[in-house]
Amino acid sequence: MTTTPFDLSVTDALLSTTRAVRKRLDFDRPVPHEVIEECLELALQAPTGSNKQGWRWLVVTDVKKKQALADMYRQGAGDYLKTAGAEAEARGAAQDGRVFSSAQYLAERMQDAPALVIPCIDISQLPADVPPRMWCGLMASIFPAVWSFQLALRARGLGTVITTLHLGQADAAAKLLGIPDTIMQVGLLPVAYTKGTDFKTAKRNPLSDILHWDQW
After folding, report:
1. Does the pLDDT at position 97 exceed 90?
2. CA distances in angstroms from 121 to 6, 118, 143, 183, listed in the order given
């Protein structure tokens, strides 16, 4: 019998129930700075291309700056969320409709999150004409750490969701926050404790529909 040093019932539950949290974020409960730092310390154990560790993290708790970022987020969203939600409802896609409804809710409340975390990556070593494979490697050097951060939050009763709509206003956000030109923002994560921790697995297409062995 194969043995493992981990309780798989716990690790599998963590991996399969760490959800994109929006409506169940508790905007009224403060999040201690040390909890976020503890989760980021764990995120730094994630793999990174060539072990460059080019990740950078910006945590925003200042009320005025959160408001400004939320305004940028809503500007980046435009009418997309409302339109997409209406289209999902029209075609009877209930799950998609719920997602867009919760995304619209978050857009309206983004400034109320106790902390907004912006994961970034150092792009100072990239050539001027970046080939696609290098972008793949760059994202592979930051998003494993982002996911580890999300898992660490979930294990402590907090939640978040990866958002990218503010990136349409990335230059304005960089100016607001003093982010250097050599650093690229890859997302914006609202962080808060969750209202309850009873998250379930999501409905997904069967693995057999998307898995290929040896040949497509």
Report:
1. no
2. 31, 10, 10, 6
Q: What tokens appear for 125 in the block? A: 């070593």
Structural domains of the chain sorted by starting position, each given as residue range(s) with its CATH number in brackets: 22-77+111-198 (3.40.109.10)
Distance between CA atoms of residues 99 and 95, nearest Å: 6
- Region of residue 130 (left: phi > 0; alpha: psi -120 to 50; beta: else): beta
Q: What is the pTM of this model?
A: 0.92
Q: How far apart are CA 44 and CA 105, in angstroms?
A: 31
- In sequence order, the 6+-apart residues with CB closer than 8 A to the CB of 114 are 27, 29, 30, 31, 61, 191, 192
What is the per-residue pLDDT across 4-48, written as a single tens digit (0 to 9) for each? Answer: 899 999 999 999 999 999 999 999 999 999 999 999 999 999 999
Percent of the chain with pLDDT over 90: 79
